[in-house]
Each structure stands twice: as structure tokens, then as C-alpha cells.
Protein 1
Amino acid sequence: MKVLMLSKDVKIFEKGSAVRGRMVEYGRLFERLHIIVISRGFFVNETLSEQVMVTHIRVGGILDSAWKALAGIPADSFLDFDVITAQDPFELGAIAHRIAQKLDIALQLQVHTDIFSNCFTHRNFKNVGRNLLARRYLSKADCIRVVSQKIKNSLVQELKIPGEKIIVLPIFVDTQKIKEAKPILPKPFDFTVLWVGRLEKEKNCSLAIDAFAQFARNVPNAGLVIAGEGSEKRSLELKVKSYKLEACVVFAGWRNDVAGYYKNADVLLATSWYEGYGMQMVEARIAGLPVIASDIGVAKEVGAYIAQHSPSSMANLLAQLHALKLPKRQEYQYPYQNKEDYLELYKQSFEQCLPAPLENLKNAPK
């Protein structure tokens, strides 16, 4: 099978990045994987492996990007792809649909965020437009990959998409790496609340600080460790200062060794306005760490303690957990036994887009 992929993730060009490594692994599943990255900036086209080629195209309007993407494909391979996949159902979905029509190939769209959450579109006109794009193009896809059962359910209910067209397949988590990680934390506290993610508005770290401030009033030597970077960092530091919690809150930056943080904390707090998946919650539960979250992403699926999206509700659950008054959760069982099984499912997520099994296509009369 030959796959054409549209992405916005420039980390594919970053040597040693997890994203680049995943693309090379995915490439082993196919005869060829050609990735077109549409973004700002300037990046050099590369061959990542014998099967994987990545091409960069400067961002433009949707139709402009579609034609540039087509131009970026070698002319002799225009009719040589079996399926095109887009890593979002928005702008990339629109481009992928146009290319799928042009090349007469199958279309897979991926959904990595909760596009039907009220918080996704609240006061965000760009996301309102993206929601409309998703509604239009998801119904045109031959198959859809989502990262949680919650998103699958929403597509079935909101768009009446048949469930058999949707496969639930998140990004693979290396459970062995998490279980073997050495416990670390930047500062010893008697009770450590951990927050992990990008310091951006949609991740809502501000709520974690508000909830911790209420909780910490009655818990001496409690600490909040924030592992992440982003544009909101300065305003979050000022909020911590306004609460006079500088000694209790640690901004640890982005961590490649965050698995060790899971092993040494007492609870993970997840406060995003919306999530498609929530890998930090999965990783925390694999490490044996309890999670407090609102009903976002896979929170219920991994057995998180569910709070209202308010500081008082989350602070109350933190206090109950600290006082050992919450029922103990069963050990979380990650659904994928090993990477080989996962990669086989990944390959199947493309095969189900085709109108007939690939072997039948190859053996069909010319």
C-alpha cells in the first residue's frame, strides 16, 4: 500500500524527535509513505528512510495549499497512491478531500481533538470555522481514525456517521519505558500535585493553580509541579506570585523524562478546556498515579476522578484524595499489549478505507 499523508507537525523535520521516529516506524508498514507538511517556516525536503519521504510546503490559503501539495508530488506517482490521510479534519481535511478527488484515491481523516465540545468553539471564531469544515468533510471520508471512544460516539451521534467507518486508535504509549522510569521530582513536598502539558489557553493551567491555591490553604508543604512550556508561562508565573505560592509551585519546563515525575508525584491534575485524548492521563495511570480531571478526552476511560470544571470542585477532590477518602481505582490496563500489535492496527486503519481488501485489488483483472 502507498500512503500520502498531510500534516502540520514540523517536528517531523527535527532529528531525534518522537514524531519523526513514529513516521519511520509507520513507513515500514507500507510500500511508500509520502508526508507533506504544510506550515510556516522553511524546511528542507528529506528522505527519512527507504519508504518515507517528507516534503515541506509554505502555508497559504486552503486551495492554494492543495495545488502546492499536488505540485509537491512527483508527477510519475500522481496515480500511484492508494489512500490519503489528513491529520485533522479542518484545513488539512479540505485539502486532502480535493487531492483524493483529483487522484481518485481513498480518503482517511483523523480526529485528535473533541471538536463537538462547547469549549472548542466558545469565543473562538477560528474553531467555529474549523467545526464547520469538519462537519462537511468527515461525512465525505471513506474512513475516520479517532483517538478516543468519546470522539467516536460524538461523530455517530452528531453527524450520523456509521460506527464501522470509525476506528479508535490513539498514539502508542511505551508502557515499559514508563514502568522502568526512575522516580524524580525537582523539589521534595509532602504531597505533590503534577500538571503536564503545553502552557497554552486551551490547556488551562490557570485552573490548576487556582485549584491548588484553595487546596494548599489546609495542607502544609503541598506542592504543584508544572511540566511544560508555552506562551502562557509568564502570566501563570504572575498568578502564582499573586497567590504568594512561589515556594510551593515549580515550573519545571518541558521534560523528556516526565515518566519519572509520574512515578514520584501523588496525583496528576488535568484541567484542559477540551481534549481529544489526553496522553498525560494515560501515562499517569500506567505509572500507577491517580488522576483528577473534568470529563475530557479519555478521563473516564482511564478511571480518573471526575470533577466539575471549577477550582472548588478540583480542590475538593484533591483534599479527599489527600485524606484517603476517595475509593481506590483499579490498576489501569493499557489496551495495546505491545508496539507490534499496535502497528498492525495502524495498518488496518488504512486498509479499511479501501473499497476492497488490498490483495483482491492487486489480483483484480486489469
Note: The radius of gyration is 22 Å.
Protein 2
Amino acid sequence: MRPPLSYLRISVTSRCNLRCVHCQPERGEAGADVLSREEIVRFVRLAVECGIEKVRVTGGEPLVRPDIVEIVRDLAALPGLRQLGLTTNGCRLPELAAPLREAGLRRINIGLSALDPAVYERVTRGARAGPLASSRHPALAGLRAAVDAGFDPVKVNVVVMKGVNDDEIASLALLARDDAIEVRFIEYMPFAAEPGMRERYFVPAETVLARLRELGEVEPAAGPRGPASAQRYRIRGFKGTVGLIAPHSAPFCGACNRIRLTAEGRLRACLIDGGEQDVLPLIRRGLDRATMARLLAEAAAKKPAVHTGAFCGQMHRIGG
């Protein structure tokens, strides 16, 4: 039996300061902040009253919103919310890590596609990383800022793409050697509108695990895990852990407890297959608890037993 919905991922903007190949088309609109701070907080408050326990703020890039610290502060203060996290590309964390933690954020995920500056620039379509040891590498500088600010946990998200960054699997895993962070390798999810992309970029999780075993003895990591989270491993001698997220080679649809509100105000039942409902008019008219309960129940009923594998939509609008 599928678990009840308890995890909301809410995209607070579709704008981003990068244009990563696994997230956005090469050309298109820059995005926007559709939902106001008040609308976001009210939606989350009602969702928590209806059983949501965990919330993750996503984008686009949530840190491009000028009011993101205030949004985090308001959400962190909501009664009944057990866990609040945020996913970012890390570029603005050097200036915002400390204010976000002071506002009540404790959990942070950072997208880091590559360590090699040239590969990072290719994946992000133009972000200039600079030398590896330099603070000019945006995501690495953000990662260090998050660790120094005391976030726990700090997770690094790596979308693995064949012929692009798969030769950096071992190097990226080494980020967890000296710091108590988790480096998570995620199978590439192709855009449905671009046929042939899976064959071009897909690297199965088992291939990633084989590369990790070259670094030392690998064993399952102890500790709690959610019903649809990464398979976590510890490499001997590492302070941190590594994780594998395999939506294609090992689907976890039957254990998925997630729901998403997109940047345009659409409630989405499944990241890959969609099942969206436009709830922006309801948000603008003023949601109440009964309506929220109905919306969540309808979304839960739309979740597929197994996704089709064809990603429908644009990740920067949905909030992966």
C-alpha cells in the first residue's frame, strides 16, 4: 500500500541564474516569481494542517528570490512542520548560508554537476567555475559556505550524464571523504520532448556503484531512510556518505509520498508523469483547509503505480 502524502516540494520561482542541460531547454523564457510570499506560506500552512510533515523549497533557483530568507523564516515558524529543506545550485550560498540558517533552515541540498571547470561550464551552459581551488567555482564555494554555516545534513546532488560528467564520479564522491556530507548520484531523466536523450546520457546506478567501489570498501550506511529516498552507502575511511537515486533502473513509485506545487501554481502528483491540476485560481481566491484536503486526496489518487520514464515538463518550473 502506498504511504500517505507527507512531503511537499514547492517551487518558489522558475527563474534561475544557470541553464543546466538536465533542467532547462537551451532556449526559452527566463521564468518568473508567480506566487507571492504570503501565498506560499498560506499554502504550506494549510498543507501541514492536512498531513504534510516535510517541505522542501525548490525552484528554478530559490535563492534568486529577494525575499527567500523571509519565506524560509515564515515557513520554519509554522506549527506542525517537522522538517524544512531547500535545494539550490549553491551560487548564492556564500552570502546567504548564514542568514538562511539564522532564519531556521537546517537541511540543504546543493546541485553540483562537475568539479572540472570546463565541464561545469558545459553542463550549466556558461557558468564560469574558475580554477578548482578558487572560490570562483560557484557550487564549490556554496558547498563550503553551507558546511561552515553548520547545516545538517548537507547533500550534494549530481545528475550523472554519460560522456559529460560520468568520468568525475570518483572525484565527486571524494567530497564526502573529509566532510560529513552526502554525495548523491541521480540517474538522468530525459525530457520527453527530446527523443533519444536517454540513450545519449543515461548511466545506470549500478555503473555508478561499481565506480564507487574503486575508492574502497562500500557498505550500506546505517540510519533512518525515508520510503523513497536514496540508497545510502558508506565508503571505508569517509566521514560522509554516498547515495544512489535510481528512478529508472530501480523505480520507487510505490513508496512515493511526495507532492509538488510548481512555480506556476500547479499541483503535480508525480515528477515524471505529471498529473497536474491548476490550483492558482484557488490560491488567489483564498484556500481553506477543506479544499486543501480535497486537493491532496485528488493528487494522491493520480499518482501512477509506475512512471512511464518519459519526463514531461521543464524541471526549473516543477522543482525537482
Note: The first strand starts at residue 7 and ends at 11.
Protein 3
Amino acid sequence: MSIQPFTINVPQTILENLHDRLARTRWTDEVEGAGWDYGANLGYMKELANYWQHEYDWRKHEAALNNFAQFKAEVDGIGIHFIHERGKGPNPTPIILTHGWPDSFYRMHKIIPMLTDPARFGGDPADSFDVIVPSLPGFGFSDIPQQRITLDRTAELWARLMTDVLGYKRFGAAGGDFGSPITQLLALAHPESLVGIHVTDIGFYNLYNQQSDLSEAEQRFLGAQQGWFFREGAYAMLQATKPQTLAYGLHDSPVGLASWIVEKFRSWSDCNGDVEQRFSKDELLTNIMIYWVTGTIRSSMHYYSDMYAPKLQPGQHIEVPAGFASFPKDLPGVDLPRSLIERHLRVQHWTRMPRGGHFAALEEPALLAEDLRAFYRSLR
């Protein structure tokens, strides 16, 4: 399991091909006055595509990403790309941060320096971390598995990456979206290796729907979640059942790919309907570019076929100390009762954030970084 240094260096031919495809976009029409009611708004997508074609500079962002120490290692036959930044405090705690969909390892780029070097941001050097940020298999610069890969299999890959490859005996783990169930499954399977876990969403959405002893607040949250899936969840069912069909269009058209992803960043963030209140065009496009230049939109959807499979049983409990940060605009936009997640997690740290949505590490990196420091401070 040798580790090789990794540098992002996208061939110029890929960038030229992208530029040509953007120039030849065949635009659809739109219902007059539709706004974002039926999906990605035509006017905004034309504005974004024009910026992408004429102003966006991938090489600048590629160079910025290459300022992070990046590596690739084969773990159980899968090449895993990861950032590994060492902490600058006296005794850094190792922590693995896991992203989800439709983001990438880029989700974590703002909080990495806040965790490795808290003193630079007004914090205590004693709160520093060694930060490991892998790309999920089938995402970004990790290998594309030739067979389906599951959430619990990924948790096993992370355990081996941290212990066998990087040599950490004990470590922390955190994440959101797919990063939440992966982090929790890692703690379930390897409690002896985990100092603690920290998540920003419940992760196991079907775990409690059939239970008869739910409180009124818990029922309200699960009802809101079910309502959200009726309104917004068609993408998940499509990605779970017919990802190959969807992939032809998204893999072939950069504007198609961008519209599929940007609409989620707008809908799932705390942006009041204006996606650029939270994410600049450059941030949106850099994340999209990671999918485009690696050709990984199809493989990034494979977890959806595993999302509805039971991973925990009612009554099953994860005993590793847990922290939870609840962001008000995270899905489904209703407060998550602490009692619900305490049904399967040993919650020792709970924070209701004043703002922020699903992409916490990108939207509110300072709030999330401070919450991670506060939680792990008691576990060091």
C-alpha cells in the first residue's frame, strides 16, 4: 500500500474540448417567468456558461488545489486520492473528513487550514488536527470502481487508509451528506480506532419511519423530511435506479452537468434563492470541473443505489462519542430533534447553528471549524 505524491495536471486537450462544447451549447427554451420553479433557471445558466467559457481560469484553481499536500494510495485494490495536511500544534489529532454529492473533496478546502493551523485564525494551537480529505471512490481523482461500492465498504476503505496506510492508531472522523453515514458506519465497525465522530446530518433517513414511539417533534421532522423527498427527491430516485441513462447527457454536455449540480447548490444552501450569496461562480465551477475533467458524474451516483439499504437496525447504537452541528437550512429545513439522533448516537456535543445549509464546510467554514475544535477539545 505505497503512497505516491499526487499533483493535479489536467491535459490541455480536455480544457480545449470543454471550451468548444460550451461554445456549441444547444440551449433549451423556458416557460415565461418560470424562474427556478422547474429547475435551473435559463438566464442564470447562460450567464454562468458565458463566464465559464470566457473568464473562468481552471489553471488558477488547479494551482491553488495543488498547494495542498495530495497523495494517492491503493487501498483494497482501489486507488484513493486524498489530501493529507499536517497540523501545526503541539499534538495534532488526526481527522478524516468525508464529502458527499454533488460536491467533492473541494467541499473541505476552506476548513483545512482552519483545522491544521487554528492559531492563524485566532484559535489555540492545541486544537490543531492532521487533516485527511479523501475523494470518495468514483469521485474526482480517486479510481472509478468497476463494481458497485457501498457506504459500509467505503467506511472499511477509510479505516484501512487511516490505520494501515497512514499509521494512525486512533483518529477522529467527520462529514456531511454521504460523509455522515460513512462516518457513522466507520465508528460502528471500528469503535476502537475512533476518538469521536462529528456529523452535520442524520445520515440514515429511513431508520425511524416505522417506529411507533416517536415524539411529536420527531414525527414532525420525519414528516417534513418525507415531504421534502416528494418535492425534491426525484433526482435521488433517478440516480438510484437509472444512473446510466442520466449519465449520457451529463457526461456529454458541460451545461447539462452544471445545471444538474448548480440547482442543488441553490436549493440546499442558505442563500435565500440567490446561489451567489453563498458560492461565487468560481467556486461553483471549480467543483463542477472536478466532475468534468475526471469524467466521474456516472460513477459519483453509485452510492444512491445503496442509500436505501438498511445499515442500522432500530435500537442499534453507535457508542463512539458523537458531535452534531445542526445548520438551519440543511435538508429538510426543519430543526432536527436531538432526541431522534440520540436514538442511535451517543451525542456529547450538540450545536444549533445560526445560519448555513447543507454544504456547511463551504458555506460556513469558520462555524464548522470552531465546532469541530470544541468537540474534539474534550476528547484529546
Note: Residues 325 and 371 are 7 Å apart (CA to CA).
